[in-house]
C-alpha cells in the first residue's frame, strides 16, 4: 500500500527559484526554450530541496483514463482485505487499473483523496471505510464511491453499504429471544457519522424497543492503545468488559475481530463462552467459522457490495447517473458462541 505522504513538488521548486511551474517542468525534463542560467538555478533548487521525481505519478498520468485510486481507512481491518480482493478483480475485469493507498484510523481520508487526485490524477476514487457522515467536504474533481460507510452529505460521493441498523437489530433480537436482558456492546467510536457510531446507536435503540435500558458502562470502550478493529483492541475491550459490564450475560461486538479478541480475553480470565457469556460479532469473516466456539455474526454480502461499488463507479466514470445510497441486507449467521443465559438454562 502507498501513503500519500507530503513530498517536495515542482510548485515548491518554482517558489524557491522565482519562476513558474511550467518553467520548472521544462528545466527538469531538459526541454528546449529555457535559458541556461534559469535551468541551472532550477536544478540547483531541486537539489537543495532534495526533490525526487515521482515516477509513480508519471505512470498514472500516462495510464489510460480508467485508473481507480482505492483509499483504505483502517487497513488493519481484515474485512477490508477480503472486500478489496473482490473489488480489484471486478475493477480489472472492467479494464480499470487499480492503485491502493492507505489512511490511518485517525487520518482525514477525504483530504488525503484530494491530494491523491492532485498528484496522481486518477479517473475515480473508491473509499473502503471511514466516518464520513457530517463532514462538510467539497466534491472531489473525479467520481467517488465509499464502501461500507455513509456518503458525505455535502458532495457527490455515493455510498454502498449494508443496513447496519437492521443488522444490529437482528443480533439483539436473537439474544433477547434466548432470554438475555443484560447485554453489553464492544464499541470503538461515539461519532454518529462512523459505522461504529451507527451500530452503537442502533444497539441502544433496539434494546429500548424491548424496554431494556443500556447503562453507560455497558457500552464498553477502552483507551485506544491498539488500532481499532483489531484483535488486540478486542482483547483490551474484553478485559474492560469484566470490569464495566460484569452483570451482562451477552456481549455484542461491533466487528468479528473485536468479538474474537474479547472472547480470548474472557477465556484467559476463566470466563467460558457461551456457558458464562454469549458473544456475537459483525462482518462474517471466514476465521469466525474456525474458532472454538464458532462465532455468531452478521454476514456482510461481500460480493454484492463489491459488484455494486464497481457498477456505480464505472457508471460515474462513463457519465451515467447512479443512486446516492445503495443499501444491502446482511444476514445473521448462527454459531456456537450464543446460548441461553445461565439463569434460563437452569
Automatic annotation (TrEMBL):
Gene3D superfamilies: 3.40.50.2300, lambda repressor-like DNA-binding domains. Residues 8-62 form the HTH lacI-type domain. It comes from the Bacteria. InterPro entries: HTH_LacI, LacI/GalR-like_sensor, Lambda_DNA-bd_dom_sf, Peripla_BP_I. GO terms for molecular function: DNA-binding transcription factor activity; transcription cis-regulatory region binding. Keywords: DNA-binding, Transcription, Transcription regulation. PROSITE patterns: HTH_LACI_1 (PS00356), HTH_LACI_2 (PS50932). It holds the Pfam family LacI. SUPFAM superfamilies: lambda repressor-like DNA-binding domains, Periplasmic binding protein-like I. The keyword DNA-binding applies. This is Catabolite control protein A. It comes from Corynebacterium choanae. The gene is ccpA2.
Amino acid at each position: 500500500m502507498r501513503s500519500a505522504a507530503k513530498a517536495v513538488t515542482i510548485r515548491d521548486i518554482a517558489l524557491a527559484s522565482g519562476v513558474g511551474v511550467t518553467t520548472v517542468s521544462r528545466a527538469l525534463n531538459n526541454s528546449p526554450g529555457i535559458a541556461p542560467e534559469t535551468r541551472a538555478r532550477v536544478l540547483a533548487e531541486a537539489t537543495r530541496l532534495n526533490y525526487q521525481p515521482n515516477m509513480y505519478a508519471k505512470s498514472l498520468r500516462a495510464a489510460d483514463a480508467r485508473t481507480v485510486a482505492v483509499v483504505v481507512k483502517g487497513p488493519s481491518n481484515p474485512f477490508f482485505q477480503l472486500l478489496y480482493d473482490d473489488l480489484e478483480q471486478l475493477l480489472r475485469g472492467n479494464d480499470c487499473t487499480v492503485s491502493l493507498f492507505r489512511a490511518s484510523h485517525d487520518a482525514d481520508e477525504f483530504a488525503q483523496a484530494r491530494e491523491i487526485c492532485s498528484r496522481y490524477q486518477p479517473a475515480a476514487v473508491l473509499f473502503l471505510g471511514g466516518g464520513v457522515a457530517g463532514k462538510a467536504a467539497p466534491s472531489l474533481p473525479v467520481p467517488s464511491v465509499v464502501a461500507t460507510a455513509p456518503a458525505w452529505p455535502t458532495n457527490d460521493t455515493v455510498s454502498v453499504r449494508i443496513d447496519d441498523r437492521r443488522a444490529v437489530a437482528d443480533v439483539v433480537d436473537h439474544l433477547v429471544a434466548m432470554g438475555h436482558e443484560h447485554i453489553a456492546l464492544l464499541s470503538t467510536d461515539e461519532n454518529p457519522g462512523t459505522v461504529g457510531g451507527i451500530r452503537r446507536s442502533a444497539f441502544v435503540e433496539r434494546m429500548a424497543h424491548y424496554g431494556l435500558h443500556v447503562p453507560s458502562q455497558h457500552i464498553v470502550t477502552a483507551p485506544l492503545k491498539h488500532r481499532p478493529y483489531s484483535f488486540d483492541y478486542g482483547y483490551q475491550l474484553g478485559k474492560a468488559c469484566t470490569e464495566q459490564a460484569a452483570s451482562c450475560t451477552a456481549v455484542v461486538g461491533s466487528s468479528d475481530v473485536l468479538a474474537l479478541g474479547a472472547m480470548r480475553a474472557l477465556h484467559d480470565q476463566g470466563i467460558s463462552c457461551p456457558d458464562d457469556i454469549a458473544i456475537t460479532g459483525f462482518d462474517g469473516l471466514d476465521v469466525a467459522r474456525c474458532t472454538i466456539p464458532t462465532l455468531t455474526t452478521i454476514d456482510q454480502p461481500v460480493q454484492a457490495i463489491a459488484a455494486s461499488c464497481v457498477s456505480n463507479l464505472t457508471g460515474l466514470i462513463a457519465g451515467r447517473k447512479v443512486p446516492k445510497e445503495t443499501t444491502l441486507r446482511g444476514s445473521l449467521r448462527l454459531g456456537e458462541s450464543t446460548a441461553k443465559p445461565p439463569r434460563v438454562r437452569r
